[in-house]
């Protein structure tokens, strides 16, 4: 799926055909035409395509001429306008059969969304988002969109989520198409974010391009941050900034605490090293430090600096330092000095804080050390960061009482006029890219704020996530965190639940290696059933986007853990769905499918595969593919793995089927790893030199928790090298060893706690 390649699709009549499409980033324009294929060697492009006359032909620019081809009456020659000065990796052309919907943005730009034939309706949601987004960016950057048109097009076989080719953005079908009846809320949100991300690149990346791949993070980190700003503008009801914390911020911190992480800026010498940096550090840590920087500078000066940067470097190339210089000029703050500590060294700090009441003031003692997934930092020269720190108190939990820049290993801070009974919290809004460890007295005073919801949602989330990571690193005990998790009984916020759910999922996977796995399932049921009962199965009047997401999350969690009432209701609704009596709403499909499969048999799996075959929408096919791994018996697991490599599954989706098996159960994990080893040649040929190979490896081995598995994984890849996944493999081995250490350290006390808890609960 790289260079100029063919993409297979099926016509409405059921005939298999091919479209011709491009994917050039990072280094594959050279596969399509001879060129200086580096981002800083920019040129204008005059493109003409000779194509069958019944096919749609698109490129970056608008068509200026279309004439019959002299040698063959079935062909036409389509000529496109000259492009602005641009990099090779952003050139694109597509030839195929498509329908489209179009509109004009209020700035007069012609916007079209191209869909598979007969599905133009499904392009309307993305069209609306794109038409709102272009003017938003034009105003934000104060620079007009530089081309006469923009096309967004859905491609059947597509490795990434989307690609920001200038004026012709390509997408996976699931990142662009929305069917009002059959698309779930999370798909809408995903489409809005991806459209926001790719359109931001039209300025940041396309108009001004990074000098070299070392600065890729600038492109991706920036677009991954501003996509949220854009969605928040278009859909304030999504509460998207809280979701940023669980989707990007915590994901980046998880990876960046490893010894095998890497700095945001990485020197790149070979094309395989470029593929390797399209990871959570470039995207999610990049976005997180830009969010912290935006907060530190303030929106007004940030916008001013962005405009200076884009104006100065338009149609040229820039490096990270150039952006810092523009933002420094706009804000008068030491941007380069602060940001170099975040982009040029890997990792992030753990801030330890203790407090003392001195008359009417609260004196805080802060110290910073690098946060390591393996426990307290040991070693000589500990790296230091310049950390923008905000401090809030119970007097006004939504407002910073004090903002400071911590630029040394230790400092004391005095908060004036704080009563002894008021709590003090660091990192308001979970914006600073650091973790906080409170003295036990400070932590005690914060916990009631979780129960009574006086701490804002994103602060409740951050507090819980920090504690979970500290336990994972062995700095505090896991049992302490389980106790805190129980304080979330009254929690109404979707994103807080989503993060809690992820962490319980990690713990659950860890404990699948023990003989008390059932006990942790009971714990999950206890934590999630009160909110499950409050929500019920059916949407109530006046509910919105977040309620739908929460209901799907909670029912899926309860169903997977084997909650009896949820399982019975899921089976009943599934039966009605399959019989066509009462079709499941899109938001309930994933949790129901997952629940019936996990507690089902061969017949259930056959019905699911039949639903997959009948599904007309790629979203529904993916939804089914992702849950197939929940099935438990060894022969059914084999059947799912074989299905993953069959013609029924698009090549970019095989990875999530195998990953689903590995994440579904202990038996699945073993089977998926064996399957990858047995089919390595085919898988490697399919995905080599792209990020899908890294994703496949990560999903399939990171759940192991036995030391010797790390050795086995390492040995396998020594004899079967995958250069673009090298760092991922090291990270996976490190994670396996960390899991094993965690289990050795805490398994016994967790088991004790769960058993005592069970004994003290009233029996139902």
Q: Topology of this protein?
A:
Layout lengths: L2 E8 L5 E8 L24 E5 L3 E4 L3 E6 L6 E6 L12 E4 L2 E6 L5 E6 L8 H18 L7 E7 L6 E2 L4 E5 L12 H17 L7 E2 L5 H19 L5 H17 L14 H6 L3 H18 L1 H15 L3 E2 L1 H12 L3 H9 L5 E10 L2 E10 L16 E7 L8 E5 L3 E6 L8 E3 L8 E4 L1 H7 L1 H4 L5 H16 L5 H8 L8 H18 L5 H19 L9 H16 L3 H15 L7 H13 L3 H13 L3 H10 L6 H11 L9 H11 L1 H13 L1 H8 L3 H11 L5 H13 L6 H35 L4
Parallel strand pairs: 9-10, 10-12, 13-14, 15-21
Antiparallel strand pairs: 1-2, 3-6, 4-7, 5-6, 8-9, 11-12, 15-16, 16-19, 17-18, 17-20
Helix pairs in contact: 1-2, 1-3, 2-3, 3-6, 4-6, 4-12, 7-8, 12-13, 12-14, 14-15, 14-16, 15-16, 16-17, 16-18, 17-18, 19-20, 20-22, 21-22, 21-23, 22-23, 22-25, 25-27, 26-27
Write up what this structure looks like.
Its EC number is 3.4.11.-. Residues 423-736 form the ERAP1-like C-terminal domain. Belongs to the peptidase M1 family. Residues 1-90 form the Aminopeptidase N-like N-terminal domain. The chain is of the alpha+beta class and 764 residues long. The chain is 49% helix and 15% strand. It has a five-stranded mixed sheet, with helices on one face. The mean pLDDT is 96.
Approximately how much beta-strand content do the residues carry?
A: 15-25%
> What's the total helix number?
27
- Residue share in helices? 40-55%
Give the structural class.
alpha+beta
Tell me how many strands there are.
21
Strand order of the largest sheet: 8-9-10-12-11
Shape: globular
Q: What distance lies between the first and last C-alpha atoms, to the nearest angstrom? A: 55 Å
- Mean pLDDT over the residues: 96
Rounded Rg? 26 Å
* Unreliable stretches: none
Outline the biggest β-sheet: 5 strands, mixed
InterPro entries: Aminopeptidase_N-like_N, Aminopeptidase_N-like_N_sf, ERAP1-like_C_dom, M1_APN-typ, Peptidase_M1, Peptidase_M1_aminopeptidases, Peptidase_M1_dom, Peptidase_M4/M1_CTD_sf
Cofactor: Zn(2+)
Domain ERAP1-like C-terminal: 423-736
Protein name: Aminopeptidase
């Amino acid at each position: 799926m790289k260079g100029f390649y063919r993409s297979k699709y099926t016509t409405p009549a059921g005939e298999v055909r091919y479209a011709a499409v491009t994917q050039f980033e990072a280094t594959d324009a050279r596969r399509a035409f001879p060129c200086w294929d580096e981002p800083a060697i920019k040129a204008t492009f005059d493109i003409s395509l000779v194509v069958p006359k019944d096919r749609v032909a698109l490129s970056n620019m608008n068509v200026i001429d279309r004439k019959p081809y002299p040698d063959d009456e079935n062909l036409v020659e389509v000529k496109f306008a000259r492009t602005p000065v641009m990099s090779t990796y952003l050139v694109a052309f597509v030839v195929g059969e498509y329908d489209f919907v179009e509109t004009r943005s209020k700035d007069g730009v012609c916007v079209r969304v191209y869909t598979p034939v007969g599905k133009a309706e499904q392009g309307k949601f993305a069209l609306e988002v794109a038409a709102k987004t272009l003017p938003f960016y034009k105003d934000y950057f104060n620079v007009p969109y530089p081309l006469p048109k923009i096309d967004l097009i859905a491609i059947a076989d597509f490795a990434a989520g989307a690609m920001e080719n200038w004026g012709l953005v390509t997408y996976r079908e699931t990142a662009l198409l929305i069917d009002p009846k059959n698309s779930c809320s999370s798909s809408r949100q995903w489409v809005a974010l991806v459209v926001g991300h790719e359109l931001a690149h039209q300025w940041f990346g396309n108009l001004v391009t990074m000098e070299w791949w070392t600065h890729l993070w600038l492109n991706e980190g920036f677009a991954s941050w501003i996509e949220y700003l854009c969605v928040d503008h278009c859909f304030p009801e999504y509460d998207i900034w809280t979701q940023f914390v669980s989707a990007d911020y915590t994901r980046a911190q998880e990876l960046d605490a490893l010894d095998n992480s890497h700095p945001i800026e990485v020197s790149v010498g070979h094309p395989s090293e470029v593929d390797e940096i399209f990871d959570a550090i470039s995207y999610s840590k990049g976005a997180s430090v830009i969010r912290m920087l935006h907060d530190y500078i303030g929106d007004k000066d940030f916008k001013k600096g962005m405009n200076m940067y884009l104006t100065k470097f338009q149609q040229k190339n820039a490096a990270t330092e150039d952006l810092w210089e523009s933002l420094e000029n706009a804000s008068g703050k030491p941007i380069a000095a602060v940001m170099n500590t975040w982009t040029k060294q890997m990792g992030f700090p753990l801030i330890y804080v203790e407090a003392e009441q001195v008359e009417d003031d609260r004196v805080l003692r802060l110290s910073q050390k690098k946060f390591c997934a393996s426990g307290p930092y040991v070693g000589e020269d500990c790296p230091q960061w310049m950390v923008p720190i905000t401090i809030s108190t119970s007097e006004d939990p939504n407002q910073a009482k004090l903002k400071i820049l911590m630029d040394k290993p230790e400092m004391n801070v005095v908060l004036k006029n704080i009563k002894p009974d008021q709590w003090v919290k660091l990192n308001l809004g979970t914006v600073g890219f650091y973790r906080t460890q409170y003295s036990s007295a400070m932590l005690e005073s914060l916990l009631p704020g979780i129960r009574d919801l006086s701490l804002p949602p994103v602060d409740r989330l951050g507090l819980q996530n920090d504690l979970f990571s500290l336990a994972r690193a062995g700095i505090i005990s896991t049992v302490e965190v389980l106790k805190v998790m129980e304080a979330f009984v009254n929690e109404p916020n979707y994103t807080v639940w989503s993060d809690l759910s992820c962490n319980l999922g990690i713990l659950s996977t860890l404990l699948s290696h023990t003989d008390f796995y059932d006990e942790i399932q009971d714990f999950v049921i206890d934590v999630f059933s009160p909110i499950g009962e409050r929500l019920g199965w059916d949407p109530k009047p006046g509910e919105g986007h977040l309620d739908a997401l929460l209901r799907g999350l909670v029912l899926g969690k309860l169903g997977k853990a084997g909650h009896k009432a949820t399982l019975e209701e899921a089976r009943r609704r599934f039966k009605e769905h399959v019989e066509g009596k009462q079709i499941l709403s899109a938001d309930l499909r994933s949790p129901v499918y997952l629940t019936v499969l996990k507690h089902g048999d061969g017949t259930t799996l056959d019905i699911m595969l039949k639903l997959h075959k009948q599904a007309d929408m790629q979203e529904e096919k993916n939804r089914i593919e992702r849950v197939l791994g929940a099935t438990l018996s060894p022969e059914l697991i084999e059947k799912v793995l074989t299905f993953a490599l069959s013609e029924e599954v698009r090549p970019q989706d095989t990875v999530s089927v195998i990953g689903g098996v590995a994440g579904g159960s202990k038996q699945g994990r073993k089977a998926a790893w064996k399957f990858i080893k047995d089919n390595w040649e085919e898988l490697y040929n399919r995905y080599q030199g792209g990020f899908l190979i890294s994703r496949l490896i990560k999903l399939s081995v990171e759940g192991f928790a036995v030391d010797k598995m790390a050795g086995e994984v390492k040995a396998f890849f020594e004899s079967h090298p995958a250069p673009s996944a090298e760092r991922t493999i090291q990270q996976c081995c490190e994670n396996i060893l960390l899991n094993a250490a965690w289990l050795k350290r805490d398994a016994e006390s967790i088991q004790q706690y769960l058993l005592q808890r069970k004994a003290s609960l009233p029996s139902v």
